[in-house]
Amino acid sequence: MATNRAIQISKHGGTEVLELNRIPVPTPGPGQVLIKTAYAGVNYIDTYYRTGLYPIALPFNLGSEGAGTVESVGVGVTKFKSGDHVVHMATGSYADFLAVPEKSVAHVPNDLPLDQAAAILIQGLTALTMLRESYEVKRGDTILVHAAAGGTGLILVQLAKALGAMVIATASSQEKLDIAKAHGADYLVNYSHGEEQWVKEVLGHTKDGQGVEAVYDGVGKTTFEGDLKVLRKKGSLVSFGNASGAVDPFKINRLGDKNLKLLRPRLFGYIGKDCSPLPAPRIPKPISSLANDRSMQQDTQEVFDYYCGELFKYVKAGQVKINIHKVYSLEDIAQAQKDLEGRGTTGKLLIKL
Ligand code: NDP
């Protein structure tokens, strides 16, 4: 039986629980596409699965996205054929081969190299859906983006600028702030000097010190309280991650002080994720203004295609530049995760298969 390399965990813990194992090369089932991985993206969510912050059944194949070439397709797949360049959002992507439901696969534009495609997918789709659906940024809004030199942060900054917002960017060093500025951030705040200081600086960059329309926060625990202080009346807090740990329990009546909105969105709630071996039911829908169509089926290939198409358009137009921090080998997965968790990175980390 043909085998391929995959990163698995059979218990939770630090990077020492990461195992490089050989598993059978999957056969694509009905509605599935077998992809030969070229690059897999390294994402914070993989570290949450590893540590147990996000519950999963063990053993577990790690990796959440990748780019590669279609090797073969299962019964009923018409959109993809052998040799196509594709991206996918499916669990188990730290592997040479992966069978993925076709609804989680999209074509890569001809002129986009596979490393760039892998580098933009999850973080780009996260940034795009948060700016469109969690709090819809409007021209002239002033927003705050935390960890703005990170993978998701840099894309949030660029997309928010493309959508006409003023962007206040935070990061933990001047070097990172300079990178955020080079990607369009209007105001820079080093948030490592304590909450009182960064809150004051952020408010100082807003009209009459009234606060920002929205905060996009992937840092979580350490910034949450300050976020409530820098929001203007009726502002929105989009708390979408836990890089510093999960946000502590919170009494919702505190939102009433300024009639704030609090969201804790996940990309997979906007763009369905399904790794089951069964093909997902297909419900054809018109694509027009899909993002704003309240009745849209969240879990369809049309939604995935729609957002991938939007994202690739911003890339092609030069409005979103893709930043690859470093490319690691599969054997170096532990180092890649350590680097991501260690705050030493900017932009995207990739695994080359
Ligand atoms: P990043 O590249 O942004 O790396 C995380 C950054 O967070 C660090 O570089 C660091 O920047 C900052 N940070 C602040 N405090 C800490 C800390 N205590 N430990 C480590 N890092 C810290 O990662 P990603 O772009 O991959 O992910 C960013 C966030 O987005 C994560 O929380 C992730 O879970 C979330 N996310 C959520 C999704 C969703 O669907 N909700 C989807 C994708 C990502 P600095 O040094 O400047 O502080």
Could you name the key traits of this structure?
27% helix, mRNA 3'-UTR AU-rich region binding, 7-stranded mixed beta sheet, 353 residues, Quinone Oxidoreductase, Chain A, domain 1, single chain, alpha/beta, 6-stranded parallel beta sheet, Rossmann fold, binds NADPH dihydro-nicotinamide-adenine-dinucleotide phosphate
Q: Class of the largest domain in CATH?
A: Alpha Beta
Q: What is the 3D form?
A: globular
Largest sheet, strands/sense/barrel: 7 strands, mixed
The CATH homologous superfamily of the largest domain? Medium-chain alcohol dehydrogenases, catalytic domain
Q: Which radius of gyration do the C-alpha atoms yield?
A: 20 Å
Organism: Drechslerella dactyloides (Nematode-trapping fungus)
InterPro entries: ADH-like_C (IPR013149), ADH-like_N (IPR013154), ER (IPR020843), GroES-like_sf (IPR011032), NAD(P)-bd_dom_sf (IPR036291), QOR-like (IPR047618), Quin_OxRdtase/zeta-crystal_CS (IPR002364)
GO cellular component, one term: cytosol
GO molecular function: mRNA 3'-UTR AU-rich region binding; NADPH binding; quinone reductase (NADPH) activity; zinc ion binding
